[in-house]
Amino acid sequence: MSFSLLGVHHIAIICSDYAVSKAFYTEVLGLETIREVHRAERASYKLDLAVNGQCVIELFSFPNPPPRPSRPEAQGLRHLAFAVADVEAASRHLAAHGVACEPVRVDECTGRRFTFFSDPDGLPLELYEAS
Q1: CA-based, 20 to 30 A from 23: which of 4, 31, 62, 74?
Q2: Do 52 and 102 belong together in one domain?
Q3: In this structure, is residue 69 part of a structural domain?
C-alpha cells in the first residue's frame, strides 16, 4: 500500500506576543481569521488563518516559549514564502506598516523577484513574485 500527499494542510507558528503577532498576520499581511480558540487549561490561544482562502496557518501562543534561532540559512525550516503579484508594491505596503524588507533580488533559476522580511518574532518570511 502506498500513499500520496494531497497538499500542505497547515503551517504552525508559535509566537511570543499573541496580540502583536495576531495584528501582524491579520492587519499587516491581511490573512483571514477562520477561528480563534482560547485554551484556558493550557493558557494558550490558537488562531487559524487563511491565505487567499487556502493553506491555513495556525498561530499559537504559549506561556514563555523558548526562542528558536531561525535565519534563512539555519538548520530546520528555512522560511515561509508568500506568493504576491508585485514584490515592490508588497514591500511598500509592509514598509508603510513599519516592516523592513531586504533589497529585492532576482531568483537566478526562475527570473522572478523576491525579498525577505521578518514577523514580530524574527521568523523569516519571503515575498515571491508569482507572475
Answers
A1: 74
A2: no
A3: no
Question: Among 45, 64, 83, which residue terminates a domain?
Answer: 64
* 1 located within any domain: no
Report phi then psi at 36, rounded to 5.
-130, 130
CA geometry: angle 48, 90, 47, nearest 5 deg: 10
pLDDT digits (tens, 9 = 90+) for 69-123: 666 566 666 789 999 999 999 999 999 999 999 999 999 989 999 999 999 998 8
* Segment 26-37, tens digit of pLDDT: 999 999 999 999
Q: What would the grid cell of residue 22 be?
A: 495576531
As a whole number of angstroms, the distance between CA 21 and CA 36 comes to 13
Q: pTM for the full model?
A: 0.83
Last residue of a domain, one of 42, 64, 86: 64
Domain residue limits at 16: 7-64
Beta bridge partners of 84: 129
Query: In whole angstroms, what is the distance from residue 113 CA to residue 94 CA?
Result: 16
